[in-house]
TrEMBL record:
<dbReference type="InterPro" id="IPR000490">
    <property type="entry name" value="Glyco_hydro_17"/>
</dbReference>
<dbReference type="InterPro" id="IPR044965">
    <property type="entry name" value="Glyco_hydro_17_plant"/>
</dbReference>
<keyword id="KW-0378">Hydrolase</keyword>
<dbReference type="Pfam" id="PF00332">
    <property type="entry name" value="Glyco_hydro_17"/>
</dbReference>
<dbReference type="GO" id="GO:0005975">
    <property type="term" value="P:carbohydrate metabolic process"/>
</dbReference>
<keyword id="KW-0326">Glycosidase</keyword>
<dbReference type="InterPro" id="IPR017853">
    <property type="entry name" value="GH"/>
</dbReference>
<comment type="similarity">
    <text>Belongs to the glycosyl hydrolase 17 family.</text>
</comment>
<feature type="signal peptide">
    <location>
        <begin position="1"/>
        <end position="30"/>
    </location>
</feature>
<protein>
    <recommendedName>
        <fullName>glucan endo-1,3-beta-D-glucosidase</fullName>
        <ecNumber>3.2.1.39</ecNumber>
    </recommendedName>
</protein>
<keyword id="KW-0732">Signal</keyword>
<dbReference type="GO" id="GO:0042973">
    <property type="term" value="F:glucan endo-1,3-beta-D-glucosidase activity"/>
</dbReference>
Length: 395
């Protein structure tokens, strides 16, 4: 005999309560498709161990390092956070000419144990945009020698980070195409990535597209806020965010080259929380909207219009502000966290639902001049060209 049924209004209320709890309870596990860039051009940063502890309290699953400092690598042991190690542009000539130099770098920088895990090595930053013909010609040989020096079956991917400026066309996204003049360098690079199963790393920044066209409807499109959408007549798809449009333009360019097997990974993207009077949109409100909405977008697993059903691996920029960075005020102001180990603004990344950790140990004292490092944010040198390839007419 069946028992008494639950009154329908009570059932509806319980279901609604369960749904609200589901969407508001902080995520408890790290998510492999959400990463963050850990730059160090600053003189006030907490010790690496404190930063590792901070990031362990978030759902961030990956960290990209620009300089592979052994102390920083060691700090992430036991955190379940994997690392994308970085080698500088200045290392490329020696890697390219000497397999032993590449092997020595791998031996010195790859952790001797399985923790922390290393998911990849990025050799150089925006080399194809550098204009240095000699360096560009040495890039793929350097990648190959680093790859050959890795332990057998390590699963570590080897790639290089590219600026959006490698695209000649991105308006609309389905027309995405690489610059023909880069073919001599790009073709062997893409062949290497395909052969080794490594991703194409790229730095899309909707913020700089907005800088080029600071209209309210452009801002909503860049911040994942409600907007009318922008149709792509070439594909029949409609875009509601600049991020998806930029990523799909890169995907279209790879497809046009015949490299549908090469994955797109976002090596950097972010939004400054402050800037100069001439830097439209650089505010805490907009940074919070971009980062929190991007995190929600990635967690939805909806993907992009061209690549539905899977979130693109994305490294947010950046852990902290970097007070020694040159350039405009915004260049120093991309930090998601303060050096006190608290959030600059709510990001939705904290596992415990709080605003961070506290108190922080005394900051590490660094020299007044920054140490040699890979140029960290391509946006500082490609603001105008990036904006020009970020759908000027698409806007």
């Amino acid at each position: 005999m069946a028992g008494p049924s639950m009154p329908q209004p009570l059932l509806v209320a319980l279901l609604l309560l369960g749904f609200l709890l589901l969407i508001h309870v902080p995520y408890a596990a790290p998510q492999s498709f959400i990463g963050i860039n850990y730059g160090d051009i600053a003189d006030n940063l907490p010790p690496p161990a404190s930063t590792a502890r901070l990031l362990k309290s978030t759902t961030i699953g990956k960290v990209r390092l620009y300089r592979t400092d052994p102390a920083v690598v060691a700090a992430f042991a036991g955190t379940s956070i994997s690392l994308l190690l970085g080698a500088a542009n200045a290392d490329i000539p020696s890697f390219a000419s000497s397999p032993s130099a590449a092997a020595a770098w791998v031996a010195a920088h790859l952790p001797s144990s399985s923790s922390p895990a290393v998911n990849g090595i990025s050799v150089g930053n925006e080399v194809l945009y550098s204009g240095d013909a000699a360096l560009i010609s040495q890039l793929v040989p350097a990648l190959q020698n680093i790859y050959d020096a890795l332990p057998a079956n390590s699963g570590i991917k080897v790639s290089t980070v590219n600026a959006m400026d490698v695209l000649a066309s991105s308006d609309p996204p389905s027309s995405g195409a690489f610059k023909p003049e880069l073919s001599a360098a790009l073709d062997p690079l893409l062949a290497f990535l395909s052969k080794t199963g490594s991703p194409f790393l790229v730095n899309p920044y909707p913020y700089f597209a907005y800088q080029d066209d600071p209209r309210p409807d452009t801002l909503a499109f860049c911040l994942f806020q409600p907007n009318a959408g922008r149709p792509d007549a070439g594909s029949g798809l409609t875009y509601t965010s600049m991020f998806d449009a930029q990523v799909d333009a890169v995907r279209a360019a790879l497809d046009a080259k015949g490299y549908k097997d090469v994955e797109v990974v976002v090596a950097e993207t972010g939004w400054p929380h402050s800037g100069g009077a001439d830097e439209a949109g650089a505010s805490v409100e907009n940074a919070r909207a971009f980062v929190s909405n991007l995190v929600s977008h990635l967690r939805s697993m909806v993907g992009t219009p061209r690549m539905p059903g899977k979130s693109v691996d994305t490294y947010l920029f950046a852990v902290y502000d970097e007070d020694l960075k040159p350039g405009k005020a915004s260049e120093k102001s991309f930090g998601l966290f303060q050096t006190t180990l608290t959030e600059t603004y709510p990001t939705g990344l904290m596992r415990n639902g709080t605003a961070g950790l506290a108190p922080a140990p005394a900051p590490t004292v660094r020299p007044a001049s920054p140490p040699p490092a890979i140029p960290q944010v391509g946006h500082s040198s490609i603001t105008l060209p990036l904006a020009l390839v970020c759908f000027r007419s698409f806007l």
